[in-house]
Amino acid sequence: MAITGISRRDVLRTLAMSAAGGSVLQVIPLEAAELAHQMVHKERAAAPTTKYAPKYFSARQFEMLTWLCDAIVPKDEKSGGAVEAGAPEFIDLLTSENEKFQLALGGGLMWLDNYCVDQYQKTFMECAPEQRKETLDLIAFRRNARKDHSLSQGVAFFAFLRKMTCDGYYTSKIGIADLEYIGNVTRSEWPGCPPLPE
Amino acid sequence: MFQINRSPKTYDVCVIGSGAGGGMAAKVLTEGGLNVVMLEAGPQVYPEKDYKMLMWPYELPHRGAGVGGHASENFGEFLAPNGAWQIEGEPYTSAAGANFQWFRSRIVGGRTNHWGRIALRFAPVDFQSKTRDGLGDDWPITYDDLAPYYDKVESYIGVFGTKENVPSAPDGVFLPPPKPRCTEILIKKACDKLNIACIPARLAILTKAHNGRLPCHYCGQCGRGCTTASNFSSSQVLLPPAMATGKLTLITGAMAREIVLNKDGKAEAVSYIDKATRTEKRVYAKAMVVAASACESARLLLNSKSTLFPDGLGNSTGNVGKYLTDSVGSDGWGEVPALEKMPPHNHDGTGGMHYYIPWWKFDRRNDFPRGYHIEMGGGRELPGVGMFDDLCDDEEGYGASLKRRARQVYGNTVGFAGRGEMIPNPDTYCELDPNKVDQWGIPVLRFHFKWSEYELRQARDMQETFKAIIEMMGGTYRTKTRIDGQYPFGILEGGKIIHEVGTARMGGDPKTSVLNAYCQSHDVKNVFVTDGAPLVSNPDKNPTLTIMALSWRASEYLLEEAKKGSL
């Protein structure tokens, strides 16, 4: 649908009129609703991008969070990863508003540093890539904590971060496109299921 | 001196609550010529502004998780309930060992703004519970008494479905059903092989233009609220015609506190807290229709103490708050590889399922009484927060393999939700907590809740059925449940299905029931209750359609009584 030549104000006025215009049912024309929706979408897309200032995590922790998000859902041949999808910012926003998340994630990042200092005498980000991978391969699976109980807090932290990273990724434009979801549109007919392969 | 701020006029009827039951009463009563004032504890709803139809998750900073992720514990921030299982400043308590979850929607239209639109009639046998198996109580009315009102409600609100002649799921007045989704075609094939009935669902969604409302546009998001009112909500379908009569006065932000009796034992006013000013106000009416939701209505009656009714209005039996039930709920999901062969396609359809499984084992001997139906979901749904929680728990790991598995699981997932009938038991009820008030100073409810062996066996049967269907589809059932612990056989906490009913039941005997067969208080003749509270039993059919049919019937009776001057 072309939206050139119609201002946002025109659309909003149409919406207001149809809602108040004596119609018994407070419904608005579908086309107007769709138009308003597209406009909001375009405005958001046009907003200027500046470097993100973390709301909860320190700059150093945010860098660590970003690295972990990238490890959990990386870029691959098909699509971008969790960082491009804004997962670190999404996690930072929610964490800034929730004390439980602050403990689980803020404390979890500290745990990870402490663990690396014990193991490698370096913080997580100072570790070599293979040391970081070695650490993640341990805390990414519950079975490792069953063998070595000292890992259990790290496993719980990583399980939580994994879910939040997936949430951040698969609610983003690129994450939704990665799944090849088709929809969230209006249509006049419901054709049902395409022919099922035999 | 303190003066109560009273309404300048006396209305014919005061309706408390604007959801399915209250909205229907307001429509029928105003169209019948009465002047009605309606109290709603929440704010007005503005569909064009409030409903998040067609919005993408990434258009909200919290992506649907809500501030602090708190909306994830409810329905996410896209759905339109303006409510939750916990509302700040409005607590409730649970007795030791009980963990009842009470969902409240504070908004015009109440829970009808976000409900699943599943509109099922109770069956004839559902009204004769005790005659059938000796459990619970019979209703004072039969299916035939209510059937004309089911017809009227369906004809007015619009419900799609098909005539199927399934005894446990009576046919209604239906609009054409939408075609099945791919997941539903495969489920039906498997069900046919297992001799399980699988039929088009019955949802209050318009598959063609109806009574001036536009047909569905198949975005699959009914729970967010629909700006074109192509599905049913009280706020868009019942209140506008009531408003159009010019006889409805709607007061929002009004938390009803007490129904006040006059010296003759008749209700004469409702005291409410005006939330905006935190002051007490009083509205006068000749009759009251209480439809604040089953437990909220029980709370209001219990809080309406007088010398005549020291235990609460209409509570001479002591049964207000008793017989509380919710639906038995147990869910499960599996992966079906056959779905992986499907090319990406639009799977949205109407909000909710196009097919469902009505109770099909009604003529067999089962190891639990009554029955359940099965709702279904899955397939290529709009992604959202929490979608891959199960995958993350199952799969663990990270990186490329996790991303590959997410692609694979997305679209090949099939989910089931069993919804069954709970039998009322003496350990499940609500009462006033003697030690606690909410922020409006109103004593709060304390819940007692216990599943019995009947419900646990039903949940086990649900899990076995889900597994059998998934495996017949060539898939792998993924849900793991335990026989013990907090959720035996995956049974959810009471209240989680949001079908709580029965707290002011109707019945023929004033010594045992709170209301008569027209939802009228045995004790105080000008008080009616028209939400889920009057329901004598809680069959496996979601209660909303029956609430509206009962409310319509009660309102017609109220009109007649008003004409006769006998209120």
Briefly characterize the structure.
The complex is a heterodimer of chains A (198) and B (567). Chain A is mainly alpha-helical and 198 residues long.
Tell me what you see in this structure.
The complex is a heterodimer of chains A (198) and B (567). Chain A is 60% helix and 0% strand. Chain A is an all-alpha fold and 198 residues long. Chain B is built from eleven helices and 18 strands. Chain B has helices spanning 20-31, 47-50, 129-133, 143-157, 182-193, 234-244, 294-303, 389-395, 400-409, 453-472, 544-564; strands at residues 5-16, 36-39, 83-84, 93-94, 104-105, 199-200, 248-251, 254-261, 267-274, 279-290, 328-335, 355-356, 372-378, 413-420, 429-437, 443-448, 476-477, 527-529. In chain B, the strands form five sheets. In chain B, strands 1, 2, 7, 8, 9, 10 and 18 form a seven-stranded mixed sheet that branches. In chain B, strand 8 and strand 9 (267-274) form a beta hairpin. The longest helix of chain B is centred in the last third of the chain and has 21 residues, at 544-564. Chains A and B meet through helix 2, helix 4, helix 8 and helix 9 of A and helix 5, helix 6, helix 8 and helix 9 of B.
Poorly predicted tracts of residues of chain B = none
- Main pleated sheet of chain B: 7 strands, mixed
Taken in chain order, the helices and strands of chain A follow as HHHHHHHHH
Helix content of chain A: 55-70%
Return the structural class of chain B: alpha/beta
Highlighted features:
heterodimer, A: 198 residues, mainly alpha, disordered N terminus, B: 22% helix, globular
How are the SSEs ordered, and which strands pair?
The complex is a heterodimer of chains A (198) and B (567).
Chain A: H1 8-20, H2 30-46, H3 59-72, H4 87-96, H5 99-120, H6 129-139, H7 142-147, H8 152-170, H9 173-178
Chain B: E1 5-16, H1 20-31, E2 36-39, H2 47-50, E3 83-84, E4 93-94, E5 104-105, H3 129-133, H4 143-157, H5 182-193, E6 199-200, H6 234-244, E7 248-251, E8 254-261, E9 267-274, E10 279-290, H7 294-303, E11 328-335, E12 355-356, E13 372-378, H8 389-395, H9 400-409, E14 413-420, E15 429-437, E16 443-448, H10 453-472, E17 476-477, E18 527-529, H11 544-564
Parallel strand pairs in B: 1-2, 1-10, 2-7, 4-16, 10-18
Antiparallel strand pairs in B: 3-5, 6-12, 8-9, 9-10, 11-14, 11-17, 13-14, 15-16
